[in-house]
Specification:
The chain has 14 helices and ten strands. It has 321 residues and is an alpha/beta fold. The protein has two domains: 185 residues, Periplasmic binding protein-like II (D-Maltodextrin-Binding Protein, domain 2, 3-Layer(aba) Sandwich); 98 residues, Periplasmic binding protein-like II (D-Maltodextrin-Binding Protein, domain 2), CATH 3.40.190. The longest helix is centred in the first third of the chain and has 24 residues. The chain is globular and about 60 Å long. The chain starts with a helix and ends in a 7-residue tail after the last helix. 46% of the residues are buried.
């Protein structure tokens, strides 16, 4: 009898192991390059993975964080990552026009919450008052903050220079030490310093009239992934959309985000409710294409607008299932 029980136990263990192997084999792994760790709009993959939503869709994500959209874009072009989150759309246009194997699989941000600030003691009251030779920061070359900094300089006719300063923490150090005149950030970074009156906001991304209606950042994938892993990509986008719905449904996602970003629940709620309406991170449509194309030419990402045929090849958003 004991022998029979032992055999039954061994058979059960073998079946469990086989089932685990089979389940593991059913999980597809994707590597993501994500701009700006800790931002609400770039936390979709992180929060969805923590909540088990991507696992439910048969996906396991490896998340690599970059200092900005330029680094994110390069990681996808080089195939170091299969998917990029928050690549500047104008930079994507430019890379595609030069033959880079890049495709847009969704909008990542339509409108923006970025802002530009100075130390509290700065004489600068508004960005348009910046003196000749002032330095205005952005994250990395080819990022959306790069395009917006150039746009603000052009809008106000400033004799200022846009400079890459990397992540919000690195930028804050550069600003507070006097290396850069005007810093850039995106919530939640800087909210504590604002509350403590260490810094003052002198410009916002939405000061640029077109920004509110433009998909300034995109979800991108390497062309080989778009062409060869369509089912995996469709499941990724289904999980991404489901995660966004969950992020705006109640407090569970806010608690997960507060833990991830190292902030209080009240601050997490403020970030979501004041700075990131759900429509801002809706991935289903690239909005403001005509404006984006004009900006890309004006900012020299493109020498001429992309044709309709080129746009059809570039923009490959998997439909909702």
């Amino acid at each position: 009898m004991n022998r029979i029980l032992r055999m039954a136990s061994l058979v059960g263990m073998a079946m469990a192991t086989s089932l685990a192997v089979a389940q593991a084999a059913d999980v597809d792994k994707l590597t993501l390059a994500i701009g700006q760790r800790g931002n609400w709009d770039t936390a979709v993959a992180e929060l969805g993975q923590r909540a088990g939503i991507f696992k439910k869709h048969g996906l396991e994500l490896e998340l690599l964080y970059t200092q900005g959209g330029g680094e994110t874009l390069q990681a996808v072009i080089s195939a170091s990552a299969q998917i990029g989150v928050a690549a500047g759309t104008l930079g994507v246009f430019g890379a595609f026009a030069k033959g880079a194997p890049i495709r847009i699989i969704g909008a990542q941000a339509t409108g923006a919450a970025e802002y530009w600030y100075v130390p509290a003691e700065s004489k600068l009251q508004r960005l348009q008052d910046a003196a000749a030779g002032a330095t205005i920061s952005y994250s990395t070359n080819g990022s959306s903050s790069n395009s917006m900094a150039i746009g603000l300089i052009k809008q106000y006719g400033l004799a200022a220079t846009a400079v890459a300063t990397g992540s919000p923490p690195a930028t804050f150090t550069a600003v507070m030490s006097g290396q850069v005149d005007v810093g850039w950030a995106s919530p939640p970074f800087g909210l504590d310093a604002l509350a403590q009156q260490k810094i003052r906001i002198v410009a916002r991304a939405n000061d640029l009239p077109s920004i509110r209606s433009e998909s300034i950042r995109s979800l991108v994938a390497n062309a080989a992934v778009v062409d060869g892993q369509q089912d995996t990509l469709a499941r990724f986008m289904a999980a991404y959309r489901e995660t966004i719905d969950w992020m705006y449904a109640g407090d569970d996602a806010l608690k997960a985000y507060a833990d991830f970003a190292g902030i209080s629940l009240d601050t997490a709620r403020r970030v979501r409710d004041e700075f990131f309406p759900k429509a801002l991170i809706d991935p289903d449509r690239i909005s403001g294409l005509d404006l984006l194309m004009a900006d890309a030419v004006a900012f020299k990402n493109l020498t001429q607008p992309l044709t309709q045929e080129q746009l059809a090849e570039l923009i490959r958003i998997p439909p909702r299932q």
